[in-house]
Design brief:
The chain is α/β, with parallel strands linked by helices. The protein folds into 2 domains: 109 residues, no CATH class; 148 residues, no CATH class. The chain is 27% helix and 30% strand. The strands form 4 sheets. The protein has a 6-stranded mixed sheet with strand order 6-8-10-12-14-15. Strands 5-7-9-11-13 form a 5-stranded parallel sheet, with no helix packed on it.
Length: 267
């Protein structure tokens, strides 16, 4: 994982980025023309490791002193990297800024930095306050652990509990050991808390998370997931992330973490 988060910023404030954090790849992917010698730069290159206090745009940007930064560039760079500092510190709103831009390298760093805080990670993957309130309401009503329709939500609590939802951008959450959460529909989310739990999110761009050890997850095409495991040597919880289409991770396949902290297909 790269220690620096790198972007290129055009004079009009447009941002180019790839998750490998290569400036040249980002510019090529964006289809921008390269800078030319002895001419005002079309874009500037920025990078910062997100450690400590944000030092300001001028300190993390390569630019010609004669040209300087445009007002728009400075504003965009300051906003972007201020959000990076907040996101790595656990600010969910700032993290959602990078999720919207599909800057997965920042999400991976967030998971790694906060691997001993599964509740914080679950709070990002699923709207924890809304889900918690819904669980309380459903328990009072004595049911409602399934839902259908766009943006629908299902929640359940208790050992071996189950929650299922279907529809675009739906959410399913369950709590308790051996619990199960399942959602279907593009951009849907499934999250489970409790040991030996399962989370399954079917459809494109889906997210699955188990905030408990010995969990199993499955997502669809272009999906991503996170699993918690106990690192006995470090005596702490850690989080492993997977992205469908990268490092051999396949869609519609159950995954778990082995004793060495590696993602493997569940048996």
């Amino acid at each position: 994982m790269c220690d620096f988060h790198s972007i290129a910023v055009r004079a009009d404030g447009a941002i180019a980025h790839v998750n490998s954090n290569s400036h040249s790849e980002a510019v090529s992917k964006a289809g921008w023309m390269e800078n030319e010698p002895h001419k005002r730069k079309r874009f500037v290159e920025c990078e910062w490791d997100g450690k400590g206090a944000y030092p300001g745009a001028e300190k993390i940007t390569r630019f010609d002193k004669d040209d300087g930064l445009t007002v728009k560039q400075k504003s965009v760079i300051d906003r972007h990297y201020s959000n990076l500092a907040k996101a790595l510190a656990g600010d969910i709103k700032a993290l959602e800024y990078f999720e919207a831009l599909d800057h997965r390298d920042v999400l991976d760093r967030f998971f790694a930095k906060n691997s001993d805080k599964p509740d914080l990670i679950t709070g990002f993957l699923c709207d924890k306050d809304k889900i918690s309130a819904l669980v309380v309401r459903l328990e009072k009503e004595g049911g409602g652990n399934s839902a259908s329709g766009n943006s629908s939500t299902a929640a359940s609590s208790g050992n071996s509990s189950k929650a299922a939802s279907s529809g675009y951008s739906s959410k399913a959450a369950s709590s308790g050991d051996y619990s199960t959460a399942a959602s279907s529909g593009d951009c849907s989310t499934a999250a489970s808390s409790g040991d030996y739990s399962k989370a399954e999110a079917m459809g494109e761009h889906t997210i699955a998370m188990v905030a408990g050890t010995n969990g199993r997850v499955k997502t669809g095409e272009k999906g991503c997931f996170a699993l918690v495991y106990w690192n006995d040597k470090q005596k702490r919880n850690r989080v492993v992330t997977g992205h469908v289409g990268e490092d051999g991770i396949k869609a519609d396949t159950w995954y778990q973490v082995d004793s060495d902290g590696r993602l493997v297909e569940a048996k």
